[in-house]
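Sample entry copied in:
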Amino acid sequence: MSTSAVRAFLDRHGLAARRDLGQNFLVDASVAERLVMLAGVEPGEGVLEIGTGLGILTRALADRGARVWSVEVDAGLVRALRAESTLPPSVTLIHGDALAIDLQALALEAGPAAHVVANLPYSISAPLLRRLLDLREHLSDWSVMLQRDVAQRLLSMPGSRDYGSLAVLHHLTVTVEKGMDLSPQCFFPVPQVRSTFVRVRPLRPAPVAAEELLGVEAFVRAAFSKRRKTLLNALRGSAFETSAVEDALRRSDLPREVRAEQLEPDALLALARAARG
């Protein structure tokens, strides 16, 4: 879809890309086809798409033979897409906020092996990634477009600058596979950053049970809250009992001076359980 075609579509409906919604629309149809293949979508499968945008990725999913439930927060875009009938009959277009809508109900409607495919607005990528972790029992996988530095955080390992609570929670619940990097020219308006497409698959079974994820998350966030401090000092003043963590460190032959970013996810999980008692 050329820049002039995008501008013409938006102009016909009195629309413009909204910075407050982090809108950078995918406009390259050939890239959209490749992303659908990387997402592993097969004909007849159900897909929950987050962020319809101009419908480029939506149409690629439908062309693959998928049944698509596509959620778009921008009411103006929803009206424009419906007015021009640009989406195939296999697409159900839904006006809603992906952070507030009942995604579980949509996933169940999409089927027992539903995929999520999304070009996530950069401003909501972290909270939406976290929400998808809570839905992992109802999804086959999710493939998402992210700002490259967010993708690097997901893929990071202990000891790296990007390693933090987001990476730990994902290591404990899912596998993350890098698909491809995308040039800013694949989008309109052209963003100032590069994007990365990743595919996320739930671990079955996962080291962390669904009912304990919130507690583990609270511990890990506290552990990484003061990156320059040792783990024990970072936890001081938090809701966690540092003496229990200190005992667990000693039993694991880990030094008292260890920092959270030096620890493997499994080690942090064991410490979180020890702190909980």
Observations:
- DSSP finds twelve helices and nine strands in the chain.
- Residues 7 and 167 are 38 Å apart (CA to CA).
